[in-house]
Structure formats: C-alpha cells, structure tokens
From TrEMBL:
Its cofactor is FAD. This is Ferredoxin--NADP reductase. Keywords: Flavoprotein, Oxidoreductase. Pfam families: Pyr_redox_2. InterPro entries: FAD/NAD-bd_sf, FAD/NAD-binding_dom, Ferredoxin-NADP_redctase_2. Residues 11-221 form the FAD/NAD(P)-binding domain. Homodimer. The keyword Flavoprotein applies.
Length: 254
C-alpha cells in the first residue's frame, strides 16, 4: 500500500492493526479509507470478521452493562458472584481463572451435562468450593433485583425453573463469522463467501480474494489450497498490470 501523498513514488507502506472501512474504485486503482492508493487488492479474511454469540435474552440497559463477552482484567471481578455461561474451553478457563486467582464466587451454567472443554478443567472446577456447576440449564429470564442480576434458569427437558443471583455475567457461547462486509465494496458473495473465478477474481475488476473467504465449484477448505490460491491471484495481478511482459513462474518464486 502507498499513501496518497506518495502514490507516485516507489515507497511501500506496511500498515498493521488497521480495519479497512471503505474502498473506492478509480480508473487506475483504488482509494482505501481516503488514505491509501493501490492498484490491486487481495482479500484474505478467512471466514470473515468475528462477533461473539450474544446472550439469548432481551436485555435492558442496566442488565446489558453487566454482561461481558471478554475478560481483560480478572481482578475487576474479584469479591463478586459471577455467572459464566458456556461449555467450551473459554468458559472453563475463565471460570477457573476467576475462581482460583481472584477468589470469586462462580456459577458455571451449561445446557448439557457434558462439557466440550478439557475434562481436566471441568474436574478442577467441580472440586472448588467457590464454584457451583449448574447443568443442564438454559437462561430463561433476567432482571436486576437488589443490585444483582436475577437469572431464571430452566432445567433442560423439564418445567423446573430456578433463580440464581450474580453481580455480573460472562458469556462464552463462541463466535459467529461473517464476510458480508465486502458487499458494500461492490463484491458479490454467495452463502457468506466471496464468489471468485479460476484466477481468484471477484465481481469487481482489480479485487481478488483467496483462502477460506472464497467459494467456487469443488473448493475444499484446506490451508494448502489457500497458499496455491495466493500464487494464482498474484500471477493474475502481474499479468493484468504488465501484459507486455512474459512471466516465468516457478514454485519457489512467490
């Protein structure tokens, strides 16, 4: 990428930790976020941007402020009663860290009796006196009462409903991936993936896509195939930019 003010030089700019918001098509290339000018673009976003799966209940402003999907500083939850919802490694790891490192009272709630995370982690949690494991339960109601979250939990396969009280809740239900953001750049997608040709070209001339972000007949999601698609895209770009040149391709040249 090249900054717009130096677009005519030979300078290459590497930009990390930058989220692309806008791409504007021009005759000679693209303007990215009104800051960079490029001749071609390769999209390699994998299965897309990730967002946590939300707590499955309607939340008012007060309750929503007590629902968390990440832990940055476990000490912020010390000396509280925390509900951890989920059954994978993230839920087990967070529950363990809070219970063992901060002495927090933890309620671990999962919809199945068996956990998807490490069995050893589940066993450690069950042996801790400040951890209550609640399975198989699903959240059915939530409200703030006496400055705590009052959560109604329904026993799976039964009409039984119990209520537990937490100061805050951590949700570890996993993530959803999505590539639909490329549609605003004019790129066509098919079933949340980017449709490409055999040369990795998208519906927008000059924009290419590779890896698990793409779809075409017969594609299988393996990493080795993605490496090959990168070579195909770069070769197609070189042929487009320098049609007068004869390209000699070797397997180790890219």
């Amino acid at each position: 990428m090249e900054q717009l003010k130096t677009a005519t030089t030979d300078k290459t700019t590497f930009v990390l930790d930058h989220r692309v918001s806008s791409i504007q098509k021009q005759d000679s290339g693209f303007i990215v976020d009104d800051e960079f000018w490029v001749k071609s673009i390769i999209i390699a976003t994998g299965t897309g941007s990730f967002a946590p799966k939300k707590f499955p209940l309607q939340l008012d402003t007060g309750a929503a402020a007590r629902i968390h999907y990440f832990i940055k500083n476990p000490q912020e939850f010390a000396n509280q009663t925390i509900g951890v919802f989920g059954g994978g490694d993230s839920a087990l790891d967070w529950a363990l860290e809070l219970a063992e490192q901060t002495g927090t009272q933890v309620g671990l709630i999962h919809r199945r009796n068996e956990f998807r995370g490490l069995e050893s982690s589940a066993q450690r949690l069950q042996n801790l006196k400040n951890v209550e494991v609640l399975t198989p339960y699903l959240p059915k109601s939530i409200a703030i009462r006496n400055n705590q979250l009052d959560v109604g939990l329904k026993l799976v396969g039964s009409t039984e409903l119990i209520h537990k009280h937490f100061d805050q809740i951590i949700v570890a239900y996993g993530f959803r991936s999505n590539n639909s953001f490329v549609k605003k750049w004019g790129v066509n997608i098919s079933n949340s993936q980017i449709a490409v040709t055999s040369e990795m070209k998208t519906s927008v001339p000059g924009i290419y896509a590779i890896g698990d972000a793409v779809t075409y007949p017969g594609r299988v999601p393996v990493i080795g195939l993605g490496f090959g698609e990168a070579q195909i895209a770069v070769t197609a770009i070189m042929r487009s930019l320098f049609p007068e040149k004869t390209l000699t391709i070797h397997s180790t040249s890219i």
